[in-house]
Amino acid sequence: MDRYIVKGGTPLEGEVEISGAKNAALALLAAAIMTDEDVTIENLPNVRDINVLLQVMGEIGAKINRVNDHKVIINGSTITSYTVDNESIRKIRASYYLLGALLGKYKHAEVALPGGCDIGSRPIDLHIKGFETLGANVSIERGMVSASAEELIGKSIYMDVVSVGATINIMLAAALSGGRCVIENAAKEPHVVDVANMLNSMGASIRGAGTDVIRIRGVEKLHGTVYSVIPDQIEAGTFMMVAAVTGGDITVKNVIPKHLEAITSKLYEIGCSVEEYDDAVRIIGGPRLHSTKITTLPYPGFPTDMQPQIAVTLALAEGTSMVTETIFENRFKYVDELVRMGADIKVEGKTAFITGVEKFSSADVVAPDLRAGAALVMAALAADGYSEITDIKYIKRGYEDFDGKLRGLGAIIREVSDDREAMKFKLKAIG
Ligand code: EPZ
User: pLDDT, tens digit, for every residue of 332-369?
Assistant: First the structure.
């Protein structure tokens, strides 16, 4: 079982290049099959979920030319099957984007029910409501979601809950529909805008992405494009928090500062110094940070995907903080692991009450999901001594070369497969 060994206690310093946004890239890959011409996607993050989705797209017949780790040329003209199901695809959440893309282009799709991090029930009722409103028949049988339509006609759709996935999926299904589709109470995340921008560069007609009303006028067909994925605001935010939690000085490069505003303003509020540049942000952690209140909200609010990371940071800040999770119902599973490292956190309902401590003690912990796994690595970097983080497969789903980028900032971290390797690393680190 792969795990990270971390020797903590060192302030991390330097510059780190941020990769393309995983949650934008997954949707862009699905959108790419909606034309029969070549679509080139650049600045692709080299993470496990991307590789799983590309493999499955190849299995249904799409031509996949992986030019390199960060660039792919996709051609959907050779797709022969509209049924997407395999062991791996059931593990990722973004498989559902193939529903919208295949339904939009072929008026038929059958995709395994999505998996993804276990942070809540994660229903897809809003995706189904959107497809049915456009005129599709949707059913769920034997763990597969099937959607088919004689034709798709644009209608107005009100999203009962702000949903990134459902907003994007309805955009995909509506792009080639007849008439006009209006999505109200739409998600405004940067990756929603990224998908709309790429679809428009392929000839779609989508207006209002980034606001809560998106208008899609369906077109006859889409053509090829060359498109670059936006930088990953959550990866950037995670490294910014690493500076805060280790008392270091880190510049995240290749970012869009505007996408980071909710994170930057909170780091400034708790005592970090922040310098913003055109495509970079520098965070210098204070000697002792202080408490604050966090409530996770849809963009542009504080992102739920940064909730474990800010909780770890506040667990070392002076005073008592509150972190309220309003998006997912089960996103505090890491708290028990953090308490084993000496954190003083109590969860009551949707809120974690955090009393800052001076230091974490090193411990062996288990990553419960992608972002919590990254947060536990952050905690280990701040703790004195050696910690082990197991189940790092979750971290690899969403962070490209996470340990390599941390080593580039001075972290003493290594991926090992067994106790012997762990011991060798510890002896080497002692020097
Ligand atoms: C996307 O998940 C991201 N995943 C998540 O990132 C992210 O946390 C989430 O958006 C919110 O920003 C991908 O993009 C692959 P939602 P998604 O639909 O689309 C409820 C990570 O760490 N809901 O915006 O599944 C849902 O239960 C991952 O990178 C319905 O009720 O999130 C949740 O409470 C974790 N019915 C809320 O909406 C639906 O049909 C927001 O979910 C859909 C969602």
Answer: 999 999 999 999 999 999 999 999 999 999 999 999 99
Distance CA 27, CA 41 (A): 11
Query: Residue 374's beta-bridge partner residues?
Result: none
pTM for the full model?
A: 0.97
- Among the four given CATH numbers 3.65.10.10, 3.40.640.10, 3.40.50.790, 1.10.540.10, the one describing domain 3-18+232-430: 3.65.10.10
At residue 278, the pLDDT reads 98
Give yes or no for residue 126 CB within 6 A of ligand 1: yes
272 catalytic residue (yes or no): no
The alpha carbon of residue 201 and the mean position of all alpha carbons in its chain are separated, in whole angstroms, by 23
- pLDDT per position as a tens digit, 78-96: 999 999 987 777 777 888 9
Which residue, 323, 360, 318, is CA-closest to 339?
360
What confidence score (pLDDT) does residue 426 get? 84
The single residue of 41, 57, 117, 152 carrying the catalytic annotation is 117
Distance 271 CA to ligand 1 centre (A): 31
The Cα 390–Cα 368 span in angstroms is 9
Report which ligand 1 atom has the smallest distance to the Cα of 328: 34
